[in-house]
Amino acid sequence: MSFQKLTRIALLNIVTLGCAGIGLSQVAQPAPIMQTPRQMSELVSGNNLYCAGFIQSGPISTANKIIGGQDEADKFTYAQNDFLYINMGHNKGVSVGDTFSVVRPRAQVKSKWSNKSGLGFYVQELGALEVVDVKGEVSVVRVKTSCDLILLGDLVHLVPNRVSPPFEIRPPFNRFGGPSGKATGRILMARDGAETLTKNFIAYVDLGAEDNVRVGDRLTVFRPLNKGNLFNKNEHESVSARDYGFESEVYKGGRFSNQAPRKEGERAEGKEVTTARAKAGRPAYLRKVVGEAVVLNVKEKTATIVITRTGQEIHTGDWVEIQ
To answer: SS3 for 223?
Structure first.
């Protein structure tokens, strides 16, 4: 049937509908989508839950590892859906369908932000493996999920049963909140070497089981009022500390700059009031709240957190406090 004929038939149908008292505006419209309150759900999932990594001080088992790859003649890095071999089989009770996590201890953590000694070593979590075939001393696994490239020699552990803290409606973010009086610590480092953090970034703090931190605890991220500027290092000069000048040599009104700082005393006869002098004596508890975080994983001296709300960028070295 030609295009012209189809067009005539369509126009005829429209005319017929109009003659029957059914206008185009009366043709059934799709029902509007009802807006419902947000359902309770997981706060974090996917890579942020199973690939967050952690810092631990206790020893880690190195007995089980990846020993080969189906395509190792062609490549030496592996990712999702690649087939690998692990040194675990019937001899270690492995069955088809078992799931393992892939971890890689990186190095000892030393941070200028913490006064704690022996924080431990950083363990990177790389993904999950699913067993597809079991032999006597080895098993064939498929990379079920990967958050980074996997290498031969990476360690294989049982997948930890991690439960995400539930999503909950929070009160408005208070940028001027005071101290809670509970344990405080510092952000030591962040995943992937990030130094400026925002929402959903993973970081590590020097608060752990020894500080009674638990999974799901909410943390306030803050810094002292005079900290956090990455560029301005000098706070001891006055904002307007300049030599005499800027006025006419003939018509000037006096021997001071029109940008001179305030002088101490009721008759402006004392020293200049510099920025540092203006801050002297103010309460030590004044601070700038820059965000909130939730604890995902707790080790002996440290915890893994995810940033959930921000008032501005967060830096490694910022303080955290249990709410």
So the answer is: strand
At residue 141, what is the residue type?
A: V
Q: Write down the pLDDT at residue 264.
A: 81
Both tokens of residue 245? 């000048």
pLDDT in tens, 233-289: 554 544 444 444 555 666 666 666 666 677 888 887 888 888 788 888 888 888 999
DSSP per residue, 155-215? EEEEPP---PPBP-PPPPP-TT----SS-EEEEEEEGGG-SEE-TT-EEEES--GGGT--T
Strand partners, 298: 303
Residue owning tokens 């004596």: 281
Q: CA torsion, points 285, 287, 290, 295, in degrees to nearest 10?
A: -20
Give CA–CA dist 298/126, Å, rounded.
18
Contact 317, 177 (CB under 8 A): no
